[in-house]
Design a protein that fits this description.
Layout lengths: L11 H20 L3 H7 L4 H29 L3 H18 L5 H28 L5 H29 L4 H14 L2 H4 L4
């Protein structure tokens, strides 16, 4: 019986996407714990905060289906991944300049559009780059993604409670981190 040899190394594409997800999750998890307080500071009520969250999640979920379909039809995944991460980074930076809660509706929604655009094509790249070891590849990617979320939440706590920075400064800094998450994608070979 022939045994299939499996390369034990994780694809460079998986590592690069893991680094991008790590940085993006740091950025997102710095913002999302303080987002309700930020919206309230801009004049949003509890109802508005809930509506923004629901709208954002709905947009992201719907676009995941369509972006996967579109990337399959076009046979191109990287443009969706790059534009999704780019839109998320830019919208976080713009969110920091919000002066009324209506701005937050727009920029939080745009950030979730970015998530919706990138998720399915990114996962397809991971699957296509990891033949024979998909479970390991997705596990490594998820571990990097989750590590970024944990670190981002810790950073948010330090920035708010120990350093006492204002919401706009924190969101702007997080947006810069999210924007720098694009750098590993420039090294991508797919």
């Amino acid at each position: 019986m022939n045994k299939i040899k499996i390369n034990k190394k994780i694809s460079g594409n998986v590592i690069l996407l893991g680094v991008v997800s790590f940085l993006t999750d740091i950025s997102s998890e710095i913002i999302f714990p303080i987002l309700p307080m930020f919206i309230a500071a801009l004049g949003g009520t509890g109802l508005i905060i809930g509506l923004i969250g629901g709208l954002a999640d709905s947009i992201s979920s719907l676009l995941k289906v369509f972006s996967g379909y579109w990337s399959d039809r076009l046979g191109k995944r990287l443009p969706f991944v790059f534009s999704g991460y780019g839109l998320s980074g830019v919208s976080k930076i713009l969110l920091s300049f919000s002066t009324v809660w209506q701005h937050a509706v727009i920029f939080v929604s745009l950030e979730r559009v970015g998530k919706g655009l990138r998720t399915a094509p990114r996962d397809a790249i991971i699957a296509e780059s990891s033949r024979g070891q998909r479970g390991k590849a997705f596990g490594v990617h998820r571990a990097m993604d989750t590590s970024g979320a944990v670190i981002g939440s810790g950073i948010a706590f330090v920035l708010v409670y120990y350093l006492g920075l204002n919401f706009q400064t924190i969101i702007f800094a997080a947006g810069i981190i999210g924007f720098f998450a694009l750098i590993p994608l420039l090294c991508f070979s797919y």
